[in-house]
Structures are given as C-alpha cells and as structure tokens.
Design goal:
Blueprint (H helix, E strand, L loop, with lengths): L1 E6 L4 E11 L2 E12 L1 H14 L6 E6 L2 H16 L13 H11 L3 E6 L7 H12 L3
Parallel strand pairs: 1-4, 4-5
Antiparallel strand pairs: 1-2, 2-3
Helix pairs in contact: 1-3
C-alpha cells in the first residue's frame, strides 16, 4: 500500500490518495475535504486503504509522512498512557483519526516503510497524483 496526502494551504482544501497492490490486483482510492490539514489527509490515506481490506492480511504500508509513521510506531502508546496527551501535556492533535487509524490496523500484520516523497517511486508518485487530483 502506498499512501499520500496533499493540501492547498495548511489548513485548506486537501486530498488523499492510496494505491493498493496485491499480486496482479491493483486498487486506487482517493478523496478530499474542503477544510483540512496535510497531516489529516496523510492519515486518511492510510485509514481508507486499511478500511477497504475485506479480511485480515499482511500489509506493507509505504508513506512519506513521518508524522503518520512515527505516530503509530513510536508515539501512540505514550499518548494513550497519558490520556491522549503529548509528553508536554498538550492534547494530541487529530485524536479522532489516530483512534480510527489504530482500529483499522487491528486485524492486520502491518509493516511500515518510510519513503522519500517525490523521489520517483511509482506507487508513491501515483498516490501523490491521486491526492492532488482529489483536492476539491
């Protein structure tokens, strides 16, 4: 799975794109919102891709968002332990999407891979194109 988010202004109108590849099968998803942030669109790309899976499976998620990747792999447990507060005791931003993302990952074996954006990786480039086209 390759995911990307885009925003025209931050906040502003934004879009997300997801490219899912399994063997010979390929599925592309995208959507947008009129008033959002880039981080929310990055998260929605992963959420909507994971929610589209019909049964539990092993998923390699490729994202250029360190926010999403570190949020899930490094920060989430601490946020939850502190009642959805950051280490500096501030409320976690986008808590609604963090909870939805965590739930979407539950029944899957997930491997996270950070990719450099706009570096010629076909899946990431296509997810970026889908995200940009989905901006309302």
């Amino acid at each position: 799975m390759y995911t990307d988010g885009a925003c025209s202004g931050n906040p502003g109108p934004g879009g997300w794109g997801t490219v899912m590849i399994a063997g010979k099968h390929r599925k592309e998803l995208s959507g947008g919102e009129r008033e959002t942030t880039n981080n929310r669109m990055e998260m929605m790309a992963v959420i909507r891709g994971m929610e589209a899976l019909k049964r539990g499976c092993s998923v390699d998620i490729h994202t250029d968002s360190t926010y999403v990747m570190k949020g899930i792999t490094e920060w989430l447990d601490g946020w939850k332990a502190r009642g959805w507060r950051t280490a500096s005791k501030q409320p976690v931003k986008n808590v609604d999407l963090w909870q939805r993302l965590e739930k979407s990952l539950d029944r899957h074996e997930v491997n996270w891979f950070w990719v450099k954006g706009h570096s010629g990786i076909p899946g990431n480039e296509r997810a970026d194109e889908l995200a940009r086209k989905a901006i309302p």
